[in-house]
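Give me C-alpha cells for this 129-residue protein.
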Amino acid sequence: MTKSIIEISKIAANWWANVIINPEFDNGDDSKTGAVENRNQKMEIKEVSDNTKVKFFEHLSKAIESKLILKSQAINIRVDYSPDKMLVESAEYAELPISNFPIKTTMWISTNHIAVSYGYTVDLHFILS
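Here you go.
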C-alpha cells in the first residue's frame, strides 16, 4: 500500500524527532581520539521537552512535505558534523540545541521509500520501502 506525501513526511520527521532525544555518535574514527570525540559529543546532548519534540516534528514534517511536492526525485536530509539547512531551521523553530543531532547521518526520502544511514560505519536501513 502506497503512502501519501503527508504520511511519508511524518514517518521521516518522526524518526528524527525520536533520534534527537538520545542520539548516537559514530564518526568512523576507531582510535582513542575518535572515542574521546564521540564521548564529548554525547556529553553535549541537552534534554528535550515533549513540547520541543512536537514543535520540531511538526516543522520538519511540513518542510519535508513541501520539498517532496516540489521535487520529482528523492530528497536527502543529512548531518555531517552539523545538520543541514532543513534540520537547522526546524531546530531553531523548536528551540532545540544543535548538539542533539547525530553526526554522519543521512536520510533519503522519496514517495516510495525512506532509508537512513545512522552513523559513519552503519549500513543503510530502510524505514519505509
